């Protein structure tokens, strides 16, 4: 409990980033307003790309480089997710690869993990949005995503100019960057990471396959519930897994209640833009809280222009199914971890017995000689 309170009070490190918040608000406002006036679903992807790029702080040394990576890789992820929505085997392979990529990036620190969660969320949104609009071209979705990100980068250049900074900062040396990443990767045992990577790969791939085979509407509620719950720290405990699942279910329930009570795209956009600015200004420092915060904003953006909020049972069913899938994978990984621990303990006992046997034989021989 003491650790929970410490995480709550250390939600954001340092003063609020109001400059990045203004960039995020203006970056998402323009495509959302154009989407409201034109009713074209393409502006929704531009707003998602803008929010994805706005996760980087342009005033930091590597902020512009990170913004460029988030925009380009996020566009590729969204396009791949949309393209795989009609191919079950491709969807299974893609989601398994992204689950493994997410676990692999988390080995290299919090910032690399934030990059991985952003790409995975874009993949889930791309697959879940298939069939819900007149857009049917993954290349068009990727380009619209990049347009939103480039709009935010233009605003970010203006913010750097106001602070008297270089338009494009000096790039880091690749060797130094690899040394830092390797140092982060060495802090976690290979067996622990292997179990976590296996759980992520199985859960994310099964979630993508279920959405594909069942043709679920708003399927990203299922996949995002799985991804978000997996990112909360279980530490091998089923109780913590159940607590994380309840936290994800509660957050999803509040989102569904919020959208169902409004049922008005203009009102939802008017409320959501200040929330996005406040969320970016007070971006969570803790990785698990950052995942919850970012996923909620992504879902709000994806549902901002939706007109089917009178059907909350579809979203609630998808979230519940995702939570059950995550609990099943957590139970499976817990059993595998217990089996490996028992096997290691048995091997250590056998090694200790084999080491004591020669000593006992020598003592017996000495006693018989006397």
Using only C-alpha atoms, the radius of gyration works out to 24 Å
What string gives the helices and strands in order? HHHHHHHHHHHHHH
List low-confidence stretches.
Answer: none
Estimated share of beta-strand residues: under 5%
Instruction: Provide the structure class.
Output: mainly alpha
H/I helix tally = 14
Helix share, percent: over 70%
> Largest sheet at a glance?
none
Mean pLDDT: 84
Structure, described:
This protein is an all-alpha fold and 370 residues long. The protein is built from 14 helices and no strands. The chain has helices spanning 2-9, 18-38, 42-53, 63-83, 88-106, 110-128, 138-162, 174-185, 190-214, 220-231, 238-262, 265-281, 287-302, 312-369. The mean pLDDT is 84.
Features:
370 residues; mainly alpha; 0% strand; globular
Short synopsis of the structure:
By secondary structure, this protein is mainly α. 78% of the residues lie in helices and 0% in strands.
Question: What is this structure's SSE topology?
Answer:
Elements: H1 2-9, H2 18-38, H3 42-53, H4 63-83, H5 88-106, H6 110-128, H7 138-162, H8 174-185, H9 190-214, H10 220-231, H11 238-262, H12 265-281, H13 287-302, H14 312-369
């Amino acid at each position: 409990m003491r650790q929970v309170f410490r995480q709550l009070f250390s939600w954001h490190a340092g003063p609020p980033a109001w400059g990045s918040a203004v960039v995020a608000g203006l970056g998402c406002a323009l495509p959302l307003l154009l989407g409201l006036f034109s009713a074209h679903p393409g502006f929704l992807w531009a707003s998602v790309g803008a929010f994805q790029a706005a996760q980087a702080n342009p005033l930091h040394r590597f902020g512009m480089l990170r913004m460029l990576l988030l925009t380009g890789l996020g566009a590729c992820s969204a396009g791949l997710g949309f393209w795989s929505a009609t191919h079950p085997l491709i969807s299974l392979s893609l989601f398994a690869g992204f689950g493994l990529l997410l676990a692999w990036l988390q080995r290299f620190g919090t910032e690399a993990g934030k990059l991985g969660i952003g790409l995975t969320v874009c993949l889930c949104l791309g697959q879940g949005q298939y069939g819900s609009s007149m857009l049917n071209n993954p290349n068009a979705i990727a380009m619209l995503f990049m347009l939103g990100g480039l709009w935010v980068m233009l605003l970010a250049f203006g913010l750097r100019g106001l602070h008297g900074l270089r338009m494009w900062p000096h790039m880091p040396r690749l060797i130094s960057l690899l040394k830092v990443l390797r140092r982060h990767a060495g802090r976690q045992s290979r067996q622990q990471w292997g179990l976590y990577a296996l759980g992520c790969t199985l859960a994310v791939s099964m979630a993508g396959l279920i959405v594909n085979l069942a043709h679920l509407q708003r399927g990203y509620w299922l996949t995002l519930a799985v991804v978000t719950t997996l990112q909360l720290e279980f530490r091998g405990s089923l109780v913590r897994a159940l607590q994380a699942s309840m936290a994800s279910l509660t957050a999803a329930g509040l989102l569904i209640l919020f959208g169902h009570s409004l049922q008005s795209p203009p009102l939802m956009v008017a409320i959501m833009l200040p929330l996005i600015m406040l969320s970016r200004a007070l971006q969570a420092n803790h990785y698990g809280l950052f995942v919850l915060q970012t996923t909620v904003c992504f879902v709000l953006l994806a549902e901002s222009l939706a007109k089917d909020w009178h059907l909350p049972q579809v979203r609630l069913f998808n979230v519940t199914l995702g939570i059950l899938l995550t609990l099943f994978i957590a139970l499976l990984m817990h059993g595998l971890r217990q089996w490996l621990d028992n096997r290691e303990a048995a091997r250590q006992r056998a090694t200790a017995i084999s080491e004591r046997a020669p000593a006992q034989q020598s003592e017996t021989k000495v006693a018989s000689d006397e």
